[in-house]
Design goal:
Helix content: 25-40%
CATH class of the largest domain: Alpha Beta
Number of helices: 9
Largest sheet: 6 strands, parallel
Number of strands: 8
Shape: globular
Radius of gyration: 17 Å
Oligomer: single chain
Structural class: alpha/beta
């Protein structure tokens, strides 16, 4: 099997635990509309789906609803105001990034989060190494599960697909990675709904605990 020369991470639910701040924004929005807060445990599983998932749970609203657009904008504004108050790298991920830096291996972020949120969030996380590429949900004409964002990341990093690994906590990450010809691992520690278990995604490997990722990537 070709050696891994670069790693691409999904952001929400894979690299960073953003659910507390996303859920807080959803509850601030509920408060504005006269609704009581929901527990984090109810909102956390849909955090990787962004506004679509959070508004679906918090307001039982789908993107085809007439009021979805304005509500989504309101939600994103609230989230942007409190972008990185409780958000942290998942346990073990800082060590992984430090190992990548020590080995001079490039890495990047491929997320469906819009760039106006992705870029300041990555800055606020105080990463031990700057990503070599960041592809947001609106960087290109298509987002995951389309393979275009992963292919774009490969072109920027200059690493052939067989030597690249995509890691993500959503079926879309696996589909995008495989569509671009890279290996794809499921981040089982992320925001996963019970009815869509990683075992169904055809991932090349499932890592259930973020603390185990370093050993999986860099076996002794």
């Amino acid at each position: 099997m070709p050696e891994i020369r670069a790693i691409l991470f999904d952001l929400d639910g894979t690299l960073a635990d953003t659910a507390p701040d996303l859920a807080a924004a959803a509850n601030r929005l509920r408060a504005r509309h006269g609704l009581s807060p929901l527990p984090l445990a109810l909102l956390r599983p849909v955090a990787s789906q962004g506004a679509r998932g959070l508004l679906g749970v918090a307001f039982a609203m789908t993107p085809d609803a007439p009021d979805y657009g304005p509500l989504r904008s309101e939600f994103l504004d609230l989230y942007a105001q409190h972008l990185c108050e409780e958000t942290r790298l998942f346990p073990g991920l800082k060590k992984v990034l430090e190992r990548l830096a020590a080995l001079a291996l490039p890495w990047g972020v491929v997320t469906n989060k819009p760039a106006f949120l992705t870029e300041p969030l990555l800055d606020a996380l105080d990463l031990p190494q700057i990503p070599g590429v960041v592809v947001s949900g609106d960087t290109l004409s298509k987002a995951k599960p389309d393979p275009l964002p992963v292919r774009h990341a490969l072109a920027v990093l200059g690493v052939p697909a067989p030597h690249v690994l995509m890691i993500g906590d959503d079926r879309r990450d696996i589909q995008a990675g495989h569509g671009a010809g890279v290996r794809a691992w499921a981040a089982g520690w992320g925001y996963i709904e019970a009815e869509d278990a990683p075992e169904r995604w055809a991932a090349d490997r499932i890592i259930t605990d973020s603390r185990a990722l370093e050993a999986a990537l860099f076996p002794v």
